Amino acid sequence: MRSGLLKAALVLFSVCFFSCASGGGAKGSFGAEYMELGDGYAGLSKYDKAALFYQKAAAAPEYRNAAEYSLARVKALSGDWGSAIPLLEGLLSRDSENLLVSSALAYAYAASGKTESALSTYEALWQRFSDDPVSGLNYVDVLRIAGEKEKALAVLEEIKNRFPDTDQQKRIEEIAAKLAAPEETPESSSTEGAAPDLEGERTPASGASEQKPSEADEAPEGSPAST
């Protein structure tokens, strides 16, 4: 469970890592140097050391958002959701329309067992971006874990009808199979710590730029953290 959770978190938190943490700051500033050191340690999976440098980089105003997002990312990858969630909530409070941070926060809620918070966040994302089947499938997966089978089936059916040619067919089938499985017993159906098979939102944040996660677009594969 833990290894699967960290792998899923790596995928999600790598979505905008490169664009959030690179470029946009003054060359030669201490913020840039600390970010580079943090990125290097993060790429080596030395998350504690990476966190120290991201904390220092956050003191530079032009790197605050990028550093705090990267700090939240390494906290999540090390399983410290209790530290990652407040950081993401702080970022979102400064930019409530940021889709990438909203998606990361929703996943963090789900992975840490805060199912109600995850449900409300993913539902809001699905309502705002109902043209994106990935957003809907993420919502369905959290509904499934929360035990809201009837609603999960209804949303899944809506996705199947609206997106017959989506490239998410395999995932739709996997979720449908899980929903068709026998009900779990009360003793084994707790959602605490359960990790849904979520994917990062594909919709970029509005007003994208390369520097701040509060303004970042989706980044390509191949960031230091995904290698």
UniProtKB/TrEMBL annotation:
Transmembrane segments: none annotated. Gene3D superfamilies: Tetratricopeptide repeat domain. Coiled coil: none annotated. This is Tetratricopeptide repeat protein. The keyword Cell inner membrane does not apply. It comes from the Bacteria. Keywords: Signal. Residues 180-195 have a biased composition (Low complexity). InterPro entries: TPR-like_helical_dom_sf (IPR011990). Residues 174-227 are annotated as: Disordered.
